[in-house]
């Protein structure tokens, strides 16, 4: 068996490392392309959860003139509801939801009847809790906002 010089050993080791690196490169690129859409969602202010009114209904919450304490309570209510809803979704549905959010599209989750019923109940519970945080005047305004939102939703469905 022929002994290689230290320089030759280093050269051979370098070639092996380079070959392995080239073998891993497509996987690294694939991970980067997969993660990129999700990263934009984290940096998008529409998905920030530092306020109870994050997202497309931001202006509606501003009309209520919420105090900081109310904002904090509503934020907690909404986060709790979101956690409960996330627990209902399957792994595939969660993935579809993340993709839809990153693409700013409406998700098509194919919820089961049981999931729909659970989601509806969670939504109703959170709305009731939010109503308890609001003053009587804010409750009236909030009911009007919800009615307008439902009317817009029905118009889009027709």
Textual characterization of the structure:
Helix content is 75%, strand content 0%. It is built from six helices and no strands. The protein has helices spanning 6-43, 58-62, 68-88, 91-102, 113-133, 136-157. It is elongated, with a radius of gyration of 25 Å. It is an all-alpha fold. α1 packs across α4 (91-102) and α3 (68-88) packs antiparallel against α5. The chain has a single domain, classed as Four Helix Bundle (Hemerythrin (Met), subunit A) (Up-down Bundle), CATH 1.20.120. The N and C termini lie far apart (82 Å).
Class per helix and strand makeup: mainly alpha
Proportion in β-strands:
under 5%
Please outline the major beta sheet.
none
Low-confidence stretches: 27-55
Quick structural gist:
By secondary structure, the chain is mainly alpha-helical. 75% of the residues lie in helices and 0% in strands. The chain has one domain (44-157): Up-down Bundle (Four Helix Bundle (Hemerythrin (Met), subunit A)).
Task: List its salient traits.
6 helices; elongated; mainly alpha; Four Helix Bundle (Hemerythrin (Met), subunit A); 158 residues
Question: How are the elements arranged and paired?
Answer:
Blueprint: H1 6-43, H2 58-62, H3 68-88, H4 91-102, H5 113-133, H6 136-157
